[in-house]
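Researcher: Here's my situation. A collaborator sent me these components and asked whether they could plausibly form a single complex. I don't have experimental data yet, so a predicted model of the whole assembly would be a useful starting point for our discussion.
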Amino acid sequence: MTEYKHPDNKIPLFLPHSSVSTELNKTGSWRYVYPLYDEKTAPCSAACPLGEDIARIELLVSQNLIADAWQTILIENPFPAICGHVCFHPCENACNRAHLDAPIAIHHLERFIGDTLSAESQPAAIQPLPPNGKKVAIAGGGPAGLGAAYFLSLLGYGCDIFEASAAPGGILRWGIPAYRLPQEVLEKEIDRIKKLGVGIHCRAAVSSEMLERFKTRYDALFIACGYGRAIDLKIEGAHRAIDGLQFLNRLRSGENVSMTGTAAVIGGGNTAIDVARSLARLGIEPIIVYRRRRQDMPAFDPEVEMALEEGVILKTLLAPVGITDATGTPTNPNSGFSIRLQKMKVSATEIKARARVVPDGDTIETLQVDHVFSAIGAEPAETWQHVPRGDRAPIRLSHCELIAADVPMIYGGDLTNRVKSVSDAVASGKQAAIALDSYFTSGGDAVKDAVASCGVGPGPAVSMAIYLGQTRKERNPHIVAADEINIHYFKTAARMKAPIASVADRVQSFLPVAATLSQKTVLAEARRCFNCGICNACDYCRLYCPDMSVIIENEQRTINMDYCKGCGLCVAECPRNAMALKEEGV
Amino acid sequence: MKQVTEGSQAVSEAVRLAKVQVVAAYPITPQTHIVEMISEYCANGTLNARFICVESEHSAMAAVIGAASSGVRVFTATSSHGLAYMHELLHWASAARLPIVMAEVNRALGPGWNIWLDQTDSLSQRDTGWIQLYCEDSQDVLDTTLLAYRLAETVSLPVMVVLDAFFLSHTYEPIDIPDQKAVDAFLPPLSPRFQLDVENPAAYNQFVPPQAYMEMRYNIQTAMQQVPQRLERMAHDFNRILGRHPHLAEAVQCEDADIIFVTAGTTVSTCRQAVARLRAAGERAGLLKLKMFRPFPVEFFRQILNGRPKVAVVDRNCSFGASGIFAQEIRAAMYGAESPPQIFGYVAGLGGRDVTPETIEDIYWQTKNNHSPPAENMWIGLDPETVASWNDPA
């Protein structure tokens, strides 16, 4: 710099000034609190039945590391694509981003990851542990059985699945309509289980006798036959109603169903919605008849919303009391049914999440339709499929129950799950695998603690990554609350618009309702994620440190305690609560 | 070019003309208009400066300290509680020898909560090592601000340009706004004596032991003592280039005066009118305008007041338990003068109460009618009923 000649003579200046390093002054000795990197649990991951590491997955997606994101899902869930299509995504309800603008579209992002990686030649999946010589027989090839086989295989167990029907998949194959889950997605994901060496024996319905024989050939049994029998309507003329689940099964088998006119679908669960939406696609006008109110329906709300968009009529607070042949309906002059419906009202005495309803006087309505479907729920088909009660009290876990014996039996899937969802079924398989493994390695008394020690946050979700002692084990179980996010670091950004087909297109076919997202949309959406509780290397800790005490080596951040004064700026600035301040010597 | 300008805007225009590079401020009435206009200048590109929004006055001063340490021209403005909040850093700014210029709008401190004129806020900061310059009108504000930058950068000390709340900050009057070229000729770009430099890492203002601390303080004192003569030279330069002579102190009809008023700020203008009226009535009144309070121009005061019979100091401030602060300073300055006058200290116009020409005339007659001051300080215009009410034992 050239010296500028100032018009005024400057006066003498005496200032303390030093070019010597101040390293000698170890300011760390002043510290009474210290910062540390303390990764915590994101609320989405704790809400996920499978405990997927969503905050990390979205971080990887935002960096366009889709294959890494896929691997991160696979350690917790063998079915990213399936769940990306069918999961009811409770994760999004827990998303902290809702407090700023709208939750991250976690469900759509998972589908993108699953669809993208299924389409490509699959990269090396999770490497299983070496075989431990133990074999497990699995009754039922649905999501719980497949899930158990996957996780047991990862832990080194040999598995044989015994499936009653002609192909594995259970509800995924026979119950969920194709517009929600295309067949090729299912096949690719089941292939992943087969590649692990799991024996899948179809048309091999398990009986109680077979179960006894299995006890001599296997080291453990996993019972996840699901609910094989529809619950009877138990009203006059109930035989006139078509069983909803069987109907869905016929559609998935490719049977050419030809129907016209109107149909009543009795029930309020997901099966009732699947039946009604399938009927809409066959050109039939479906009417759902439910005895409680809309908000009481066990069906997942987004599904109900889509059904209503597609023209499904919902009649609530009506309980069927009888079905008779009709002498004619407006569309079919010579056939049809007449359903007598008792008007119901919410009982004033008991209001719960799902209201109790009682008859509202003697009011009876009559509904004339061409077809009647029953979808009021299902139950275990055989008595041995119930978890035994009595002297052999099982070890009860959130998603399965284990009966301690020389050959332990473990019940899972819909037989034990409170929430009957695909994700909960797979979660049951994972929990069973962890329970069985800890039973074999540490005994029955250790099972509950072992399962609890790999929990994601305080909820029921368990993590295989944590069970296997991966770095996720270091994560603090504290769930990051919305007010622990340093909101000043985030700008509002609109949630991506879901690529949902128009209603007119949707009801024309059984093609998927939602398209896979574009990569551009996916990256933008993933960048909205707060990455609650995990370090995304944003570097604000280092930038704000007044003592230059944040050191980066091999992409790992550490604090130089020689100089850290414990001011806590790094912790206060961390946008996502991935740090903590602790008192010295406590 | 003459332009009708608000007092606050006179500051902003000076800041623009001084080509300030970093501004940090926190809003407080009645300072707000100053930084509002500067922020607009920054936003629309009229002024190529970084405007740092901060969360407090403490941070505003910290931010300009940081910026000035890196060798750029800086500005901030505050008032009253905001200034009090800066107190710690005012000491830092002066001892770190940073040429910071700050506009300070004289406003009362609470409680009682009051946004109007009172000089106690700036006078409470008299020992912080800042140069303090009090302004009479908008032209004075603009000229003084420009002068302040050259002064600060010459003696390496910060300067506080002080203006009255509302009477000056929010009053419009025609003033001459010089062109950029003329200002550039008077005020060259800052050539820092020292600056933080990433190429030459160094620490400033670290630990200083007793062996050196005192010399450091003495260095500040000698710099302060240089200010009057430096300022006088700059004022000549200012006059040569910009056509006006800013006075660091001004004596009006003092030569033959029996009673000389001393005051600062807009009250000076009021006094000018009162003196003219008294002179017209045959009274020998005079006025000494106090512009520079720190450093205190002792020599000038001795020169003007020595041998005059009486001085009436009008303080719009009070150091409780002593007296008006200007009166104290003048007493101290005149002690040891050959023939010091009788010094009458008046406290008037606190918290925005009007001081009119009639008030000044009252002070004149009180001064004339007493042979010597009846008390250390005399409070003007108190409501006798209110005062009586708290004295009444009932």
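Model: Some features of this prediction you could bring to your collaborator: The longest strand of chain A covers residues 357-369. Chain A has a mean pLDDT of 91.
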